[in-house]
Amino acid sequence: METTMNKQTHLDWMAAVRLGLLGGVVALLVSLVGMVQTFGAKDVIGGVLSQGHTLLLLVGVGIGYLVSRRLSGQRHEVILAATLAGFIAGVMLTILALVAVPINLRSVLVNASPKLVEILTFGRGQVVGSILWLVLSTFAGGLGGAYSYLPARISRPLLTGIAWTIILGVFQDVLKGVIPQYIGRLFFASSGLSVAGAIIIFAVVTSLSVLWSQKGEGVRQRFAALPPQRRQVLRSGTVGAGLLLMLLVPLVAGTYLTEVVDNVGIYILMGLGLNIVVGFAGLLDLGYVAFFAIGAYTMGIFTSTGGLGIAHMSFWTALPIAVGAAVLGGVVLGVPVLKMRGDYLAIVTMAFGEIIRVLALSDALAPIIGGAQGVLNIPKASILGWRLAGPEELYYLIVAGVLLAIFVSTRLHDSRIGRAWIAIREDEDVAEAMGVALVKHKLLAFASGAAFSGLSGAIFATKLGSVFPHSFNLLVSINVLCLIIVGGMASIPGVIVGALILMGLPELLRTFGEYRYLLYGAMLVVMMLVRPEGFIPATRRRRELHAENNLAEEV
Amino acid sequence: MLRRFIRNLTATDVFLWIIRIAIIGAIVYGSVATLVSGKYSGENWLDFTVFGLAQGSLYALIALGYTLVYGILLMINFAHGEVFMSGAFTAYHVALAFGNSGFMDRNPLVALLICLVVSMGVSAGVAILLERIAYRPLRNAPRLVPLITAIGASFLLQYTFRGLYGSGVRAYPDVKALEGTWTIFGIEILKTQTIVILASFVLLAGLYLFVQRTKTGKAMRAVAQDKDISALMGIDVDRVVVITFALGGLLAGAAGLLYALIFKQVHFYMGFVPGIKAFTAAVLGGIGNPLGAAIGGLFLGIFESVGPSLFLDGLGIAAPYQLKDVIGYSMLVLVLIFLPSGILGERLYEKKA
Predict the structure, then answer these.
(1) Torsion sign (Cα): B331, B333, B334, B337
(2) Does residue B269 sit at the A interface (CB-CB below 8 Å)?
(3) If residue A386 lies in a helix (H) or strand (E), which one and from where to where?
(4) Interface predicted TM-score of the whole assembly (ipTM), two decimals
(5) pLDDT category, A271, cuts 50, 70, 90?
(6) CB contact (8 A) between residue A481 and residue B326
């Protein structure tokens, strides 16, 4: 009896220490990489909490939470362990704050600056600041540990409330530009939310969340109980309203936001194309930017009024040519890789992308496509005399393109071709044995993916008015791949959400923009470890990736 | 015989044959035209070759990291280029401190050895962390999942080091002892290049002995053959995997310092291109085969350094040296299309999925 008791109450304190050290390392990296400092310049709650501090506290809370999830033991022990982990993480950061002053770390670690130390010690001197930080970090760890013991009906609304407060505080610049001033003055201080604003937002969101958790189930059940026709009407009504709202975006959002949305739209187009290749057919293509480049350069050369223009066509006549050229490129690059699988395919397509970029940049092809100088003077598109010049007008062109792409890829997905693609993705050999024509369907996938990318490139060319080789580096391919994966492979809404998160957010949050690729990298790794199916997974893929769990549940 | 060959020919085969013939034709025509024009002297060619050899031996060192990991886990460690960068970039700070204090000039051998140890240590540490945090939890995941993780880890590492050490290009301090040339067999060779080639060969030989002669090496070979059976035989598979990553990291770190000796500069993005090239080299030699990686690296290095002048100049292409990377990448593509098991043959015991 006593031994079993011991077993139950035994808690692995070393594991808590290890997690604390891990948290400390993360906090140190976040500080030394410069994120704390950059974010420290802006407040979440004006005068109370800067973004940098929020980030560090979140690390503490996160590590406490991790402790409570990883370790098992009695409640007070686990919370104590989480507090210990928070304390250890805090100690590591304090050491940095103390060491960075007498030893000049800056010649090696560019971000270990006096400014960072000031943030870490809250500008209150080293001793007081350090103690304050230690207390806060310990507390954050304990909080994270305690969180998982709260009943869900309390913890969910609490989390939602805090999350929204932080999000609204971080998005201050964007929101201040959109909402009327008299409301803005109530909610926002000169930097970040005002204290009153933060409390109001937290209270409102939390109570709404409580309300939803009580009533939400009822609403959902009532919706499910409706006759199918009514449900259909409601659904299409929502979609229609959404579309209408979408058309109003340029009128409400202003030029800058519309510009951001335009860029997101271009990436959604590319994402939908790559989604066919990677998501549907399972062919990991890392050189996808090649087709974007082909589309853009074709558009440039055929329409440019400058020296390199060869045909001086209008946008609309050149568009099919650009898309056609991209499709041709898709087939030509697709044929040699037909027999390759998985990672080999990824590396070869990446090499293709790089070859295209180096060629575009080289002097060898400069007489045709301009080398480093690029193609200039690409005219804007126009419809019946309406010139699509500014971001507001282009927005409609892009929305039209995206809607077309969504329509085409949904139809393709549900067609015989789409099923063939999925069969190839699941198992090439079996698919072939079942009579799926591999060559034809693989090339079709490459070609249709390239078509969307070419369309996107063509729009990109006319949007910028010029085409330069440096717009087509590997990072574009990686961006597109990331947005598909984060959104959810093979899921069309996933592509849109992924593009909004990965392309839209960094534009809106300039401070994040600097750490975009660092965060992408972290996101890809964490996503693959925790949620490989993405935010909005396609049903089939979720089942596939969690096959073991399902089996375990069934057993 | 011929009729049967033609009957079995599909459209894709025809297309591939056309590519094959066109490339061989272009290479032959370009080389002949260059040689006939006599634009480059014998000395030029020799310089190109020695430089290619030096560069190739760096590729070989990095390629071994890819090949060892691929041999055991069947995954492309896309972040290996960043492992290489992390060592070189960290050792830069040590070298800079030695250069400023004059230690580098007084005791170049000791100073460089310390830099080497730092570079190798950091790279090995990064490789081990990478395995532990990013790859181990995914060992049984679907195939694309670890590759995507590796791409993510590659970006994470690049931009972490950019944040830590800054985004600028840093010039490595000069090593006075290594300036100038040595004359070996009547050929003048830059001292740095000699050192790089020699050091690489020593390291490659060391690795070969380690894998073939030690007990751990035997365990590595066993795990590469069959993980499950090795585990049954009492081999700690996790430990072997960690050692493999560590070995790859050590070699990449050494390559990092040697790279800095030749090219005299480091930056956070420096790992990407050598990483891809080294992967090419690994595939070229037959991935999973350490000896192949070494040969593939040397071959690629020489090809890349001689190629632009030899084939492209003759074809009348402007500024052929800009297209050096195109040669490397094309080589990767062509090898994978026409010779997917590499020069020495892929040494993989399990069938690839």
Answers:
(1) positive
(2) no
(3) strand A386-388
(4) 0.81
(5) very high
(6) no
pTM of the model: 0.82
pLDDT > 50? residue A4: no
pLDDT at A452: 92
Indicate the average pLDDT of chain B. 82
What sign does the dihedral B123-B126-B128-B131 (CA atoms) show?
negative
Q: Where along chain B do its domains lie? A: 40-312+319-338
Chain B residues 294-323 with a CB less than 8 Å from chain A: 317-320, 322-323
Which residues in chain B have Cβ-Cβ distances shorter than 8 Å to A521? 152-159
Local structure of A536: helix, strand or coil? coil
Mutation choice for A interface testing from B89, B90, B148, B350 by most A CBs within 10 A: B148
The answer to whether A515 contacts chain B (CB < 8 Å) is yes
Is residue A383 classed as helix, strand or coil in its secondary structure? strand
A458-480 in b/e form (b: 16+ CB < 10 A) is bbbbbbeebbbbebbebebbbbb
B155/A111 touch (CB, cutoff 8 Å), yes or no: no
Contact residues, A window 457-496, toward B, CB-based 8 Å cutoff: 478, 481, 485
- Rounded CA-CA distance B217/B234 in Å is 15
Q: How far is CA A494 from CA A397, A489, A490, A517, in A?
A: 22, 7, 8, 20
Chain B residue with Cα closest to A283: B144
Spell A333-354 as b/e; 16+ CB within 10 A means b.
bbbbbbbbebbbbbbbbbbbbb
Pick among 3.90.1200, 1.10.3470, 3.30.70, 1.25.40: CATH of B40-312+319-338 = 1.10.3470
The domains found in chain A, sorted by start residue, are: 1-149 (no CATH), 154-208 (no CATH), 252-507+519-554 (1.10.3470)
Between chain A and chain B, the number of residue pairs with CB atoms below 8 A apart is 164
Q: Do B153 and A521 touch (CB under 8 A)?
A: yes
